[in-house]
Amino acid sequence: MARRIDIAPKKLPRQRRAIATVEALVEAATYILTREGLGGFTANKVADKAGVNIASFYQYFPNKEALVFHIVRQTWDRQLARLSPILTRPGDEHGVKLRDFVREFFLIEAAEVDLRRALRAASVDLRETEEFRALLSAGEEMTQRFVAEALKSSTSNDLDFIVRFIVLLTTSFAERTTDEGTAGAELIRQADLLTDMLIAQFGIA
Q: What does the record give under GO molecular function (predicted)?
């Protein structure tokens, strides 16, 4: 059963000033998380860094966990906006799409490695919430549509396993590779090695 953590925003900013306030809170929270970690992350410190009073913080977020989830969702949306068009573009072979997808994912992970590390630690308690699960499902559904098209002969059970395998392996390998500071041509080389293995393992053409 999903844990009951209130991570829904209290209200969405609509006016220019309100949007600027939320953006300042996000920027401050990101700064604190990436430099001080979860131990230094408090609502008061975020508000102070953002240059707003604590009442403004609680006007939009019920707690610091809600702000963390807001940042996670923003990060996830940015990633999907870059990755989804690769898997859905017409014309290319599935193997070509998969290679470009894995390369792009590795590049995203490398570019946001400090933020990802911070969010990974800060969002541990959020992963069983319905909202967090919905984010993960969106990524899995995108991958599942691609794999179903690439492997038309697979059964439903096989398809579920393959999707989970690809998502878990790609995510874990990208995290480890970028955590080690791998970048540039070597990062692309390792992404291609992973793609070659997936293509060979599942017969993706």
A: DNA-binding transcription factor activity; transcription cis-regulatory region binding
Whether the CB-CB separation of 56 and 23 falls below 8 Å is answered with no
pLDDT at 1 over 60: no
Which has the closest alpha carbon to 184: 110, 117, 101? 110
Question: What is the rounded CA–CA span in Å between residue 49 and residue 31?
Answer: 9
112 DSSP assignment: T
Sign of CA dihedral 43, 119, 131, 100: positive
The number of residues making up the chain comes to 205
Q: Within the chain, which residue ranges are assigned CATH 1.10.10.60? A: 9-62
Q: What does the pLDDT look like over 43-62, one tens digit per residue? A: 999 999 999 999 999 999 99
**Dihedral over Cα of 51, 54, 58, 59: its sign:** negative
Among 56, 179, 172, 170, CA closest to 118? 179
pLDDT per residue over 109-168, tens digit each?
A: 999 898 888 888 888 888 888 888 888 888 888 888 898 888 876 666 788 888 889 989
**In terms of CATH architecture, what is 71-202?**
Orthogonal Bundle (1.10)
CA–CA separation, 158 and 164 (whole Å): 10
